[in-house]
Amino acid sequence: MKNFILIGCLIGGIVAYSGNLAPIASSYKQAMVTNAVEAPSSVQSVHEIEIASMPPATVANTTYSEEATKVKEAVKPSFKLQSVNDITLFDDPSAVIKKLGKPEQIVEDPYLNELYTYQYPNMAIVFSDGMLYSLEIPENAQTIIIDGIQLAATIKALEEALGQPDYETEDGIVFERGDALLKLFIDVDSNKLTSIHYFHRASM
To answer: What is the pLDDT along the chain (204 residues), one digit of tens a residue?
Structure first.
């Protein structure tokens, strides 16, 4: 009889134990699912915190880099007056003809026999004893090419490109680069450009 009672108690205990285990297992499973859903959100939150806590230096460096790029793009070329309309101060008549072709006409100076001018549609090139004396661009010229870069043949455009004139004269302004000079002849009354001359210091 005692044996039956003991067996009954054991069976009851097992059933009771088994009955309580299912809710626990179910709760555990539900908790696992909930954690799995919330995990990406938690990772995202951590990532947002990391971004928010990035040092200001990172932002500053990026901004500085962008500004440096803008400044670099805005840098203007440095004109040395090595050539004007593809002609240098050291070109002789044969070099000029090779570059520009034969002139429309050659005019001798009526007062100085050593001076003669090669006339081209957009400029006149004066030689003295076979050496280039000056290159003259008339007032009706629309453009001028300095050191291979084309510019508008206006006072404003040339000042923006070359900077402040090195000095002024009664009849114009002069840009100086070593022995090379570019002079803008300006009418005193109208303040309009009348011609542009490119010449060597020795020609003054």
So the answer is: 444 444 444 444 444 444 444 444 444 445 444 444 444 444 454 445 454 555 555 555 555 455 544 544 455 678 999 999 999 999 999 999 999 999 999 999 999 989 999 999 999 999 999 999 999 999 999 999 999 999 999 999 999 999 999 999 999 999 999 999 999 999 999 999 999 999 999 987
| In contact, 96 and 85? CB cutoff 8 Å | no
Q: Please count the CA atoms within 13 angstroms of the CA of 204 that sit on its side-chain side.
A: 11
DSSP string, 94-121: HHHHHHH-S-SEEEE-SS-TTEEEEEET
How many CA atoms are closer than 13 Å to the CA of 155, on its beta-carbon side?
14
The dihedrals phi and psi of 171, each to the nearest 5 degrees, come to: -115, 15
Q: Two tokens at 126?
A: 């004066």
Of the candidates 77, 76, 78, 91, the one whose C-alpha atom is nearest the C-alpha of residue 198 is 91
Count of C-beta atoms within a 10 Å radius of residue 89:
22
pTM: 0.64
- Cβ(25)–Cβ(33) under 8 Å? no
CA distance linking residue 187 with residue 155, whole number of Å: 12
Helix extents (H) in the chain? 2-52, 56-74, 93-100, 155-162
Q: Is 68 exposed, middle or buried (0-12, 13-18, 19+ CB in 10 A)?
A: exposed
